[in-house]
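Thread: Modeling a multi-component assembly for a lab meeting

Hi all, long-time lurker, first post. My supervisor asked me to bring a structural picture of a complex we are working on to next week's group meeting, and I have zero experience with this. I have the sequence lines for every component (1006 residues in total). Could someone generate the structure of the whole assembly? Inputs are pasted exactly as I received them:
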Amino acid sequence: MSELKRTQLYDTHVAAGAELVDFGGWEMPIQYPSGIIAEHLYTRQVCSLFDVSHMGRLRITGPERKAFLQHVLSSNVSALDLNMAQYCIIPNENGGAVDDAYLYLFEEDSYLLVVNAANTDKDLKHLYEALKGFDCQIENITDKWAAIAVQGPKCKEMLTAMAGGAQLTEPMKNALGTVSLEGHTARVAKTGYTGEPLGYEVYVRSEDAAWLWNRLIELGARPAGLGARDTLRLEAALPLYGHEMGNAPDGSEIPIFAVPLSKFAVSFAAEKGDFIGRKALEKQHSYFVKYMDRDFSDMSGLPRKIAPIALLDRGVMRAGMEIYQGDKLVGWVTSGTMVPYFKTEGEGLSTVILEASGKRAIGLCYIDNDILEDDTVEVDVRGKRLKAVIPARHMSVGAPPFARPLLYGAEEDAHGVGSGDRAPKALELLKKALENHEWRQEQCINLIPSENTPSRAVRLLSGSDPACRYAEHKKILAFYDKEVFYYQGTKFIDEVERLLVEEMRAYFGCTEVETRTLSGQMSNMAVFSALMDWKNRVDRKSEAKRLGYVMNNHIIKGGHLSAQPMGALHDYIAIDPVTEKPAVVNFPVCADNPYKMDVEETKKLIDRYRPELIVFGKSMVLHKEPVAEIRRFVDEQNIPTTIMYDMAHVLGLIGDHFQNPFAEGAEIVTGSTHKTFFGPQRGVIGVNYREDDLKYGLWKTIESRTFPGSVSNHHLGTQLGMLMAAYEMNQFRDVYQKAVIDNAKSFACSLKAHGLDVAGDPAIGYTETHQVIVSVGYGEGPNIAERLERNNIVVNYQATPDEEGFTASGALRMGVSEMTRFGFEAADFDRLAGLMADCILRGKDVKEDVKKLRSEHLKMRYCFDDAEIDEALEQLAAKLV
Amino acid sequence: MLYPVELQYSKSHEWVKAEDGVTVVGISDFAQNALGDVVFVNLPAEGDSVTAGDAFGDVESVKAVSDLVSPVTGTVCAVNEELLDAPEKLNSDPYGAWLIKVENVEGSEELLDAAAYEAFCTEEG
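Re: Modeling a multi-component assembly
Sure thing. I ran the full set together rather than chain by chain. Output:
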């Protein structure tokens, strides 16, 4: 085997007892002494190392590098931001794949293209031919830099420790970073070929390769060979060139659109021009689009697709085996083997991964496009027909930090249809509701920052007569813009609504208020819809243009779901034609405090993108938003924009102890009325335009996008409750808000003093809001939150700005407003902090102590409670029962 | 690598042992090591006849499938059903985890003793 190439880690593999094979001209480890199954399982459970230094690493530089890559790759290179990577395919003119690859942008002036080892020479030949006419260079740096894939749930912890705690990359997939690992420069990519939600590919200089490998093994990683790499990628249904790309078992070329990943990897952006294979790919895509509607009348242009396949009978599928439906040959297995998995116990978030493992025969296949998910087929396994099924997927990465197997047929049974006598069920419901009410109101300490308990008056009013009635109304110009109601019997609610608007105007310190929206989300949708309508007011005859750019807080950095393209912004945000992504720009955060906006960097982005809407506001919020600074900047720079502040969480803190958004320059404030503001669950919109302002027309549009745009039945009962809450707030505002913020700071300091890891800046008492964030260890958030609930302390588990998603949450998010309303003061929060530390750090059962602490605080503050009020409440309550 | 002296071996890496008048067949330690993790075994049924030098079943590892070649000619009188659920026993205990028992044995492949088989494996491997 002397002619085979060896990677920088060859000696390391030999020393570890690896079994070496010829892989694409490279002498590579197929497995280590522990074997493929153990290596696969260790990757899913802890962390494995894969030598991927054999893969071709091509550096592309020169002034026309981007135009060249747009020409030779399937993806939209303009969509690639600095410190991000993208999956792509190198197409040929027929719409087949020369290879698949990953493109990395580690530095502004060069791209790194990583290709399959066995294809490197072929790829280089193809790329050099296409290079003619482009002013750029390709350099093969495969032997200068080594590449090690570090994959599995513990990899982040290991590499972060080696980086001295520095952030490796942003937590999203495909993010890149350049860090120092114990003094050695490393390029780190959050990418991989195992399907692990936590996985990195680390590039180091060749001379550092063995050091990094051995150091990671000291930290607990184990080596894994190409065998495990294959079973892992198969379970993740990732394509392998030569199996799912290139030529099919019948010798025909597999079209790129047969591969599901092509949906992401192929772009027809105008920006890309006439790239290699474009025409053929557009034709394939036209078939693909018809298949989305299950129109299989003509499959000539794209006959088959790559899909997962799972064997139902005993046996093993292998690449090349034929697949039948009846007598009809419908495709071939392209990859297949027996793949191990960890068994689990329990369900949902409390699913426990066991030590015991099982095995299943799964694969990928190239199969007729009209074979659908859940269809059964037969695989010819050496002359025997074995039953198989086309599952949606073999595995899910949706609950990090673990990749979780999806065993075919293991889904929960559908819920039963209700039947039988309902009377006992009704009684049971009432008993349970009482139990729940007593538990939350008398025995629990409620620390969910987006919740509160409304006063008795608010509750009673919310259930009193206008509840469940209609009062549609609209301002009519012919009556000098007086509200005209469409129903009779509404004079009382008419007055209530007018009074509520007045109270909320006073509370906000603004000119106009809309109170009919039912939630914060609906308030945002009404505003976004109005902004879009306002933008298109000059041209009603063309397709309405969406909003873009919009600046907001990234959801991982604490941004509201309701201000994201996946939330309320969904139907109103434009797609940037250059990047083909929603035209959203996120506020940058400070390197030393990810909870705080970096104002200077934000100004640069505003200058660059000229956003037409800036949306402040977060749901994980420790700091004030820099409204005044940004207002000053956009005014000075004459940047036409709208400044909106989604104050959902902090609506009840508007004032001198926190922020006065309108005084600071916000034009629109939205919010929900039941978080720090202790009303019933509704939404609200305030704007600060005057009748002679140009944008007063935007306010009129917001009104019409509320009714009839968003709601016709605006829940009159809770509007009545909301008026009472507004009276309470305006009466007790100053003392309540001061108490909330003082309590949050003192609770944070107490938690810290009791040994917990409190996030934020100690110099300001960790928080300027009602929220306190405590780190409890990566991925531990859900477990700790569940343990606290068993001890009657109700909190949110929360992903911090460095974490992958809610199941990987390492923090608790807490708010003090509800317990402040029940009279908690610094000493009470200190007692609570001690109990929480006992429960979190020492696993102590503190339930009885928690119940006792709560039982001392059952009387609500910051509401009206004189004798006359009490008597009126009794009369109302008597009528309601 | 273990080569128990009480067994005989075929050049296709099966072992053979005479026990209570029947011939017990398995795969050698060398074979299981070369296969890697065994994940599935296909065995004949009781009463099937097997022929020396012909495949009587197959064994699948994660990497590939390999034929099981019968070292003897005769009739299968017992099958190790346990291996259907726990094929990994072929890796952990190759000389305990037998595959089939054959009766009415009429002939066999060329069989080697432990020393000759070890020499054969050293040369091959």
